[in-house]
What does this fold into?
Amino acid sequence: MRSTTTTLPDNGDTPNSPSKQTAFALRVADLIELVKPRLVVMILITTAAGFYLGARTMNWLLCLHTLIGAGLTAAGVLGLNQYLERDADAQMKRTQGRPLPDGRMSPLVALFVGAALTGSGMLYLTFVVNVLSGFVISLIVVSYLLLYTPLKQKTSLCTLIGAVPGALPPVVGWVAARGSLTGEAWVLFAILFLWQLPHSLAIAYIYREDYAKAGFRLLPVIHPDGASTCRQIVVNCVALLGIGLLPTLCNIAGSIYFFTALIAGVAFLAAGIYLARTRSVKAARYLLYASLLYLPVVFITMALDKI
It folds into this structure.
């Protein structure tokens, strides 16, 4: 008797087929891109520095819990930001390749992932670390998503407002370790607040044409000649140069930090002045690179030179 068994062609859809493995890897890559891991790492550096500086006796397990909660929240907020700005991102060359505007990820998936990460991070800090750290992280979530994000298309003051949630991570670390909000935490806040303004304005200046297409009302878009942008950058760099020395004066860090912050602040200011004089995209990129070096150098040195 002849067998009636039919051999089906291999269409490459077996569970372990290369095509399925590749598709899974691409989905994971898109999820990673959604939460901006490099920016999350930067946030965690300042959070960890705030914790270490605020700790009277270092509790490494509590620090780990703090970083887990802060990292989850930061990743979630950045994902929700991309969800909210997906239409604007589709109009800008620098962001068109992101998962949402490129169509590689469903908005519903991004909303779910972002909300799940944000909610779990806030709850983790509140119940595993302490209520105060959960409260501060909630201020970051609300101010970033409900104030800064929508105001980007309405007023150039969004940069100032956006600097508030961006400056709160070291405060999260401080209150997680100390259990209270003291004046030293506001010194850390002030440093990060002033740093963010030239950093953000440098990015906005470089991509001002892109931002204009998306309808963002940033300062370099409203005044494309760059005069007001450069003025704000130099003023804030000067302020940062002075405020950056306060940790030594407030007995947070020692003399090594003082001279490191002084040199870094002068270099940052020099980059800002160079942009003010030339008003070129090249100079704006130098300022951006200087800002990306300034922050980890200052906060890591502050932690290493803790008094």
Observations:
- The first helix runs from residue 18 to 34.
